[in-house]
């Protein structure tokens, strides 16, 4: 066992939800009567906390607009948008295998803790994870605050943990504290962006990921 703890991002890493997120962002923008971002622009901010993501798209947005965008986005993502968001191929087998072998598993996500709880329950995976941190419990990625909290809670040294994610924000926060990181190529950010933060590996599937843990 190379690591004691594997920390996963959620959207774009374990769950194929980037298309749904981008769609919900576009619909929220339309409802707020602001410029509608392209799919690429919307995918670019996946992983950030919601308010930070909106300000990244609309730097001049005031508090009222940010609040409206947040409300519309949440309504679209949870209730209105029917874009499928299944678990990626191999995700369930991987999680069950790692759990059975004694790995500690955690999630560090741009979702709120309530949002994380919902996807845990919908995917029937909550029991496989030791803990998780959402964007309302820590500073937004790429701050390593989430990772610091998870390491402290589970009492695992940084060199015995690895961060797995699909965005440069995931890999950057790991790099900032000297934690190993593995990028996945099938999520929100392309390989060129992931390579900037010198991950231990970039994999094209969760089956391939298993060989690096």
Write up what this structure looks like.
By secondary structure, the chain is of the alpha/beta class. The chain is built from ten helices and six strands; from the N terminus they run βαααααβαβαβαβαβα. It has helices spanning 18-31, 39-44, 50-57, 63-80, 91-100, 113-123, 145-154, 168-176, 191-195, 206-209, and strands at residues 5-8, 104-108, 131-133, 161-165, 180-184, 201-203. A six-stranded parallel sheet has the order 3-2-1-4-5-6, sandwiched between helices. It starts with a strand and ends with a helix.
How is this structure best summarized?
This protein is α/β, with parallel strands linked by helices and 213 residues long.
